[in-house]
Amino acid sequence: MIKLQNVEKVYRTSSIETLALNNINLDVKKGEFVSIMGPSGCGKSTLLNIMGLLDEPSKGIIEIGGTRVSSYRDKELAQLRNQKLGFIFQSFHLINDLSVLDNVEIPLLYRESSMKQRRELATEALEKVGLSNRMKHFPKQLSGGQKQRVAIARAIVGRPEIILADEPTGNLDSAMGNEILSILQNLNNDGTTIVMVTHDDAMAKKTHRLIRLFDGAQVL
């Protein structure tokens, strides 16, 4: 589903050059649940952003679902992200002025879906994460765990083939973290491919495969 070949990422300023990723080669298969671990600043989030087409590599090849994306324009990349990828972030990124239901519908706005279809899909996604009774609430009325479940519902509302999760349990206590991981495992059991950045060894051990990074390189 996601293939990276000889990927490098270099950040440059007028006075310094930083190698964030060094010769990364990965092949995430359909239906896998993969975790990425490593010390702070090792390139985990940079790698996830490149896998999610939110950032471009300085060098190397990226394939999503067998399609090489190096020649894609910004509009084509945005369409591919919207159709195939769902994103979950540590800090939720919910819009406080919108209800839970409206937050979950956001990805569907870019598909020009009808209001009826948006409501049906958003309601279905919220039911999957156990928040059908909170649809009319606003983010400020929710706990951290509930906000993350809304974020997961937003990630899955378009029925993506791949979910990329950046520290999805990082702001939660262990009990709520386990609950969020259980939701991700259920999605994976239903066929969704998941790549998760985590700092938690216990969480990583519950996934199919662990990728370790150190100073921007894979630890083999």
Can you give keywords for this protein?
220 residues; alpha/beta; Rossmann fold; 7 helices; ATP binding; P-loop_NTPase
Outline of this structure?
With 220 residues, this protein is α/β, with parallel strands linked by helices. Helices cover 35% and strands 27% of the residues.
Number of strands: 10
Strand order in the sheet with the most strands: 6-7-8-3-9-10
CATH topology: Rossmann fold
Sequence stretches where pLDDT stays below 50 over 5 or more residues: none
Q: Share of helix among residues? A: 25-40%
Q: Can you identify the CATH class?
A: Alpha Beta
The gross shape turns out to be globular
Percentage beta strand: 25-35%
CATH architecture: 3-Layer(aba) Sandwich
- According to CATH, the homologous superfamily is P-loop containing nucleotide triphosphate hydrolases
Distance between the termini: 21 Å
Mean pLDDT: 93
Radius of gyration: 17 Å
* Number of self-contained structural domains: 1
Largest sheet entry: 6 strands, mixed
Query: Helices and strands, in N-to-C order?
Result: EEEHEEHEHHHEHEHEE
Structural class: alpha/beta
